[in-house]
Amino acid sequence: MKKNALIFTLLFIIFALRSIAFAVITNEEDEFIFAKKAFEDKFYEVAKGQLESFVKKYPRSDRIVQAQLMLGQCNYHLDKLLPAISELEKVLNRPRQINVTDVAFYWLGEIYLKGKDFSAARDYFGRVVNEFPDSEYRNYALHSIAMTYFESGAFRDAFLWWEKLNKQELDEELAQDIEMHRGIGYLRLNDYDAARRCFSLYIKRVPRPRALDEAYYYLGEANFNSSDYHQALENYSQVITRFPRSRFRELSRFGIAWTYLKMERLEDAQEYFAKFIELNPRSQVLDSALLGLAASLAKADKYEEALDIYERLIKEFPASQYAVSAYLGKADCLYNLFRFQETVDFCLGAIKKFSRRSDRDDFFYTLGWAYQKMGRSEDAILTFEDLLRYSDDEIIKASSLAHLGDIYLEKNEFKRAQDAYDSILKEHTHSLYADYAQMQLGMVFFRMDKYDAAIIALRSLLANFPKTRFLEEAGYYIAMSYFKQGNFPSAEEEFAKLVVSRSRYAAEANVKRGVCLMNMQRHQEALDLFKRIRMSGMSREHLMAVDYYSAWAQYFSGKEKNFLKSLNDFLLRYPDSEISPDIIFWLGEYYYRNKNWSKARDYFLQIPSRFPRDDLVDDAYYWLGWVLYHKKDHLSAIRYFEQLTIRYSGSPLVPDALYRKGIILKEARLFKEAADIFQQLERRFPDMHFYYLALKEQAELKKEERDFKAALSLLRKAENCPLIDLNALIKFDMASILEEDDNLNDALVEYLKIVYLEGLQNKPLIERTNMKIAGILEKQGKWYDAQEVYSRLISSEQEDIRRFARERLNWLKANTE
């Protein structure tokens, strides 16, 4: 349920959901060590906060460069790429920091590599290699340069850079990674012999390589594509038998199927199978021959002919070991003949017929495509990557990847969407979908709220594809990324470009420019811009936005009367606007804050009467209860709180409304009725802080009746409250009851528990508690102990405590002497 965040501070701040006590780090050395340990343990969010604090507090520290280096790396790992660049550039701009320049250059390269700005990445890696030949980062920089070419599809250039590595200083993990990428690069270049050498070397490495299953799969691919089918079968089988959970297992299974079929050319296969069937009509392997013929026809896109053979096989050999394959082949032919409903019906029947999970999964594969064509894409998403393996058409592969990425993006499965778009950029660099993939990568980051990464990806699109059809869209989302991250000057600049270029986003961009100006505190400029926009004429939707933001610009300019008039004019002009309830509710809040109870009531009342189905109705009832409470109309206040609890029992405001009702009854000295409400609150919300409040209030009612034993019993139930401030108040009430009952020793213990309560930040309560402690010490004749407590209180910020403590201290000193 959506809720308006209340602008004014609510009462009872002590009821905050959580109170966390942090250890105090008192000096530069401790702060730096803490931040460094957090960074080394990969707690990057924590390390970032500590390092930012360190840099701010100790700008002249000898460790400032180390701190900025780590801060840049924290931002890199947290995908905050622009701040990462900023921190590392600060390192480079510091004089006499030659000893860390190579490190800064290297990480700047990694940042641009992650953002897919390969040219900039190569510049920084190149500086490490050329300017710091003895750097420990040299090999890593050379490898990263190679990866910039690898990821852009320039594999031969990548090979050249890998050859420049100092192999004597190459650690094992990096060597494995390089060998794997070299093999994949040769595979993409169709140099299968070189690919086989790379993967074979990878497999033989000691200790065991990290991605052995991947190496066996790609080695099988190299064998397959070089027509070494027997060896291909061996390597595909290694994946299946040795790595049952490998992500390459299914690809290897498909590879084996392709290998058997590819051992003969398609025309030769068709001729052989057809001839065999003709000459051996009663052969025990006739079903196998029929399957081979149908498969070869299907691969040649002769789906009608293949369909006839599959149907013959199913009819004549219902119990054949190849029945599953026959059913799968028929389903595939139906699909490729655009007979999608028949495909669905047939696959559903086959799923019922065959119980083995592996068989069912294969039917779901074809079924998924049929569902997707019929608009039921949720069932198809698991099968699209399989299509990529079957197709020989690069355009189809790129199109399929784009389609996969779009579906994942729509389902908010961002990592999978990113992988699909990345595959286009890596494997189909020159396809028609390359610029689209780069655009969509920006959209993935935008949807994930990673705005720095989105900006870098979209700017890379504009740089690498200057004639892309997505120029306007990229510009708009660059502007929106700045806007979302609160960088309003940059956002305003980008929106202005869209307006000047007469982009299809121009009208919206102009309105957003005004919002940027407002956020930059340039309210009069925003008002002038909105006025020009309104005079230029535009759609009702944009006029509505202009009128709404114009009102707020007046508010922030201090023109409250104009602001209120503009909001009311908006409600008259656009009575059915979806934001009308929010405006009415805000006006109610405005008059509530200004203690104009009558007007606040009038606006809050409009919500349930005009918009009875709006999400704000329960909020309106809640604040109507408060308004009537302030107007001293307690019965009406209770009635609104009751309506909220009855009509909107699922609202998060219900426990507060019940609590407020109990408080009003208590103030009216209707103690029995109040106790009933607090007991109900205790029963219904045992997992909320209102449970402890209810016990506390019940205890106060028992104290009012002088039933100290019952009051203490209730407070004991509440003393484990996890909210520190509320816990302290409960202990204070317990101590007060014990003191009033002349149980001074136990009262003193409870008061001391408050003072020693770790994490308690409520200074006034701590001082009140110390006053109580001093008073008990006086009663017990512990004059010098009491003096010590009073001496700490004479510096209190509260005048009454300071004055009383001074008076008691003077009296005690005079009388004890």
Topology diagram in text:
Blueprint: H1 28-40, H2 44-57, H3 64-77, H4 81-93, H5 98-114, H6 118-131, H7 138-151, H8 155-162, H9 172-188, H10 192-204, H11 212-225, H12 229-242, H13 249-262, H14 266-279, H15 286-299, H16 303-316, H17 323-336, H18 340-353, H19 357-373, H20 384-390, H21 394-410, H22 414-427, H23 434-447, H24 451-464, H25 471-484, H26 488-500, H27 506-519, H28 523-536, H29 540-556, H30 560-573, H31 580-593, H32 597-610, H33 617-630, H34 634-647, H35 654-667, H36 671-684, H37 689-704, H38 708-718, H39 724-740, H40 744-755, H41 763-779, H42 783-793, H43 799-816
Q: Biggest sheet, in brief?
A: none
How many whole angstroms does the radius of gyration measure?
37 Å
Shape: extended
The parts where pLDDT drops under 50 for at least 5 residues are 1-25
**β content, as a range?**
under 5%
Helix content range of the residues, please? over 70%
Label the structural class: mainly alpha
Q: How widely separated are the two ends? A: 67 Å
Q: How many strands appear in the DSSP assignment? A: 0
The number of distinct helices, counting runs of at least 4 residues, comes to 43
* Overall pLDDT score: 85
